[in-house]
Amino acid sequence: MQKFITKRLLTAIPVLIMISMAAFLMVNLTPGNPAELYVMPDATAEQIAATERALGLDQPMPIQYIRWLGRALTLDLGNSFSTRYPVLPIILSRLIPTVVLMGSTLLFSYIIAIPLGIISARKQGTWIDNLLTGGSFIGVSIPNFFLGLGLIYIFAVQLGWLPTGGMTELGGDGGFFEVIRHLILPVIVLSAFYIANMSRYMRSTMIQVYGENYMRTATAKGLASKTILTKHGLRNAMIPVITIIGTDLPRLVGGAIVTEQIFQWPGLGRLTITAIQQRDYPILMAVTMLSAVVVLVANLLVDIMYAVVDPRIKYN
Length: 316
Hints:
One of its GO terms (biological process) is transmembrane transport. The chain has eleven helices and no strands. By secondary structure, it is mainly alpha-helical.
């Protein structure tokens, strides 16, 4: 296992370099000159050129990339174009809210999706199964922004039960329960797709597992239904569901960008939207690389979880 992890970490290095090259190219090829955003509308060409030099945009793109990569290897991500503050503290200050949102979403999704998938499989062909299957298709199809705006209108504007956005109330103490109140709607919006998707995977795998010979043998031995489910069925059905963590994590990151913007959640997603609007290249590069690292690490953890759930899986 240690050799496998080491090999995966080593292969991640060239992957990250290629991602950084592609991201740097796309960011710098976007239309417009960032320097023009940070000068007066009537600025002269000399003033714009001076701003380009101050931002480090006067050098050829390969030179800019090599300089950025050299600094990034020492965790120096440069300074934000818009605020002139170091990028790393800005990213770290926005990281915790995003981790709270995404972690709560994954936890909530698994708590709801796994039981729904099991119930749907055990009630296969009944009205309960049809209802849950239909609900899963709706959850997969509905866009985040549409669901978010709808929930804000119902529960915040009309009923006044929940806040419209933010992480805490203006002037509030920022306590645990205050954050939870602000977290409810974003988590529901962000987890709708994952609950629907995971429950569908769980249903299909549980139906397949229930048809296996070892499940029939366990039933014939007179074991309790709970024992059969937890010791024999659930462990084997979890492997495809675990896969969803790795395959759907990029979608979760992308969905968090939209959701944070809708609910004014002070995380990396909202920071990314602001950086795009302001053409803040250092911020965009930092967020892109952080997202890439998270996805690569998550896929490694998924492979490790395979071996934990199913001891028959060995990594040589």
